[in-house]
Amino acid sequence: MAHITFYEKPGCGGNARQRAALEAAGHTLERRNLLAEPWTRETLLAFLAPLPPAAWFNRSAPRIKSGELDPDAVNAEAALALLLAEPLLIRRPLLRREDGATLVGFDTAEVHAFVGLHDAPPGRLDVCVSPSGHCASPES
């Protein structure tokens, strides 16, 4: 089993289900607040660099859902500046194994390949699910 640093948004129901699935698979988690982490260009790119910039964004963030911000229309430098200024825009969770390997988001198949995930609860674990479509806390 792996020890994973799990960067989450406190109060997010989706992140709670994801943590539960990882713990049920026997993994231990060090939970960190994604919104309060002192991100730098280097620490954030350690997670994001392998992905295209549009995949760096939390598509449920209010500025994106409202159409104010189009992640598909920004280049890597602009995307990074936005994410550093407003961590709520960062796609979550961010996961880091004890060997330093990283993963962005919670696609069940990718997480299974990353650390092993068995007996995951039914339903999608890569999205926040609530009646309103938003996470439980006021900041999506």
UniProtKB/TrEMBL annotation:
Gene3D superfamilies: Glutaredoxin. It comes from the Bacteria. InterPro entries: Arsenate_reductase-like (IPR006660), Nase-assoc (IPR006503), Thioredoxin-like_sf (IPR036249). Transmembrane segments: none annotated. Belongs to the ArsC family. This is Nitrogenase-associated protein. The lineage of its organism: Bacteria, Pseudomonadati, Pseudomonadota, Betaproteobacteria, Burkholderiales.
